[in-house]
Amino acid sequence: MDKAQQDALKKAAGIEAAKLIENGMIAGLGTGSTVRFLVDELGRRVKEEGLEFTGVTTSRRTQEQAEGYGIKIVDIDDVDHIDITIDGADEVDKNFNGIKGGGAALLWEKIVATNSNKIVWIVDESKVVDTIGKFPLPVEVIPFGAGHVIKRFEARGYKPTLRLDAEGKPVRTDENNYVVDLHLDRIDHPQDLAEDLITTVGVVEHGLFLNMVDKVIVGDPDGPRVMTNSNK
């Protein structure tokens, strides 16, 4: 699938998801290429349909895009709940386990998701997999002692790499932390791995989002289809 086809599927999923936002809602807005189409559509609805809602964003990038459309964005600590969060995902399997953090926003994404009444992911069909892990698993780590955390991951066979930008410098998250990507190929026991990662000193958060999502809207060539998590 070429990029134009993939973008068309992402756009269709984003437009479908935008229908879930209603007047007066507090909505979490995720980060990434599919979410950009969602925010474009919400901007259109604000302008053309008079939609009024309050947004909480998972990155500064999304905040800037939304505010450009006149969408009201507030800090997460200024709201007592979030009605629905719509975000992308890098991979999701049939058990509704996902990997997020390809865009290095996983910590904010998880904080917003955890405080949401309902979570919806929008993806193109290439992101739906049998077993997660082919996409490298991002782990956000504090810069101090990061080298030791990486050595520990190496010893456990996690095949870690420090994520670098185009200039060869470590990528920094919105909280100024580093991202270490684990090249696992497949994750057969995600709960055990999640527990191991989060209890490693120096790790702030990891990109395993396990059984958190309520619905996944998949951009499909035949039109968007919805996967509903019956365990939620």
Automatic annotation (TrEMBL):
EC number(s) recorded for this UniProt protein: 5.3.1.6
Single GO BP term: D-ribose metabolic process
Enzyme class of the recorded protein, top EC level: isomerase
Pathway it works in: Carbohydrate degradation; pentose phosphate pathway; D-ribose 5-phosphate from D-ribulose 5-phosphate (non-oxidative stage): step 1/1
Signal peptide location: none
Positions of the catalytic residues: E109 (proton acceptor)
NCBIfam families per record: PRK00702.1, rpiA
Family according to the record: Belongs to the ribose 5-phosphate isomerase family.
General function of this protein: Catalyzes the reversible conversion of ribose-5-phosphate to ribulose 5-phosphate.
This protein's name: Ribose-5-phosphate isomerase A
Organism, as annotated: Bifidobacterium leontopitheci
Taxonomy of the source species: Bacteria, Bacillati, Actinomycetota, Actinomycetes, Bifidobacteriales
